[in-house]
Amino acid sequence: MDRRNFLTAGIAATTVLASTGQAPAKAANDRDVRIVGISCSPRKGKTTATSVNVALEAAKAVDPRIKIQLLDLGSKEISGWTGGAKPTDAALLKDDFNLTVLPMLRDPVPDGLIIGSPSYFRSMSALCKAFMERLAVLRSPELLLADKPVGVLSVGAYRNGGQELVIEQIQTAMLCHEVMIVGGKPKAHQGATLWNAYKDDIARDEFGIETAKQLGIRVAEAALRLARK
Length: 229
What we know:
Blueprint: H1 3-20, E1 33-39, H2 47-60, E2 66-72, H3 96-106, E3 112-118, H4 126-134, E4 149-156, H5 163-174, E5 180-181, E6 192-195, H6 206-228
Parallel strand pairs: 1-2, 1-3, 3-4, 4-5, 4-6
Helix pairs in contact: 2-6
């Protein structure tokens, strides 16, 4: 930029500030992009929560606009769905989902999600299933999560302990919200798979930690791309 253009731009900015009393509005492309990670393990602060946080930190490193938040469901009381109930009926339940979880997912709606669950008997945890069912409230009267990028990870007691089955189960449930399913980069194309082989020291699973990082990066990239649109 030459001297004349620089001065012209400065005068224009000063005029806006003087006439409105406010600085020029932030460009839409510069807005913060919020990614929420949800740990669906009943063991608060353990391997699943740590793994989700690893993915979140990797997402945060992609761009300064990325803001992250970890939602650890461990120790929270979340009831499953009642057969024949309507989404509005769940509002009558005064459990932790409505009191603390739902406000974080609806006001405002995140730009991306990373969901993690342990593999119990090669399936998602009961807590994760209850959480998935209660998310129905975000489908009515409108699909609040539609087109949001969602990445999934799972932690198992064995290297091949059903992690990919759990990932698939969560992805299938989230497709009911018409989300954008996001896998990771190489080593984590479907999602992040971690192995708790070191007595809860999940950081020692270098391969699994790398898959969590790659998943976080992909979710961040997708969220940024959608925010630009």
